[in-house]
Amino acid sequence: MSNIVMETNLSDVKFLRRGKVRDVYExxxxxxxxxxxxVSAFDVVLPNGIPDKGxxxxxxxxxxxxxxxxxxxxxxxxxxVKDYPEVLxxxxxxxxxxxxxxxxxxxxxxxxxxxxxLSGSGWKEYKKSGTVCGIRLPEGLVESSRIDEPIFTPSTxxxxxxxxxxxxxxxxxxxxxxxxxxxxxxxxxxYKKAREMAEKRGIxxxxxKMEFGIYQDAGCKMQEGKLILIDxxxxxxxxxxxxxxxxxxxxxxxxxxxQIVRDYLLTLxxxxxxxxxxxxxxIVEKTAARYREILGIxxx
Length: 300
Known about the structure:
Radius of gyration: 19 Å
Distance between the termini: 24 Å
Helix content: 25-40%
Mean pLDDT: 93
Low-confidence stretches: none
Number of domains: 2
Number of helices: 7
Number of strands: 17
Shape: globular
Largest sheet: 8 strands, antiparallel
CATH superfamily of the largest domain: ATP-grasp fold, B domain
CATH class of the largest domain: Alpha Beta
């Protein structure tokens, strides 16, 4: 099993924060985002990770950021360590392939979710009320049904626990009408382009979550700033990927993500609070194989 990077320690670089997966450092006017191999389930980071998960997430994000440049700019400054500030070069063994040097941006206080298929919490709500996040959908849909016109279902960011779904009207109150409209329209355009590209490779993107930020260019301080894509995009951690070949509406689908981990944990007598249980090698290897498989399919 290859080395697993669970956390980073760039001792002479300013450390900002540690998320469930990513470690973030500050270098002058930029941020360095490093995707580790940590894996979380039910909002708990587990004791052991998935080999190369961070590299795979980073490479998939880089691929999609580049594909979406005609729709919206993103936060990437550099992805090759040789193009990073010199202070980072000695950490090449740790950060190569799993990091991005990015612009500083003020994150929007909402997460932008686009759903093209009926799954997860959306399916649960539809069964009860015929709606998803308050949006009325046609009658007679089943689990994993395709939603012909993708729907935009934002959520607010929670410091701890699960994010909270909000209506578009509630989102407009948070960010303003113009910004809300732009976030919705851009998110749907990104999703539709990605869905079309993925389908040509035999992959369904059932839904995805993306984040935006306001980038304030140093030369434009009197302006409001520019909306850009940040964080990650269209990875197995932020999206549901299904195989078109195996797709069958009316049931849950096998996903190219950490569902293997969730399914295993649900067999345990664990209350889904910290500390989480250690994953057996068999589950780790199966999950790693799924991540490697979707990287190969999407970026071939």
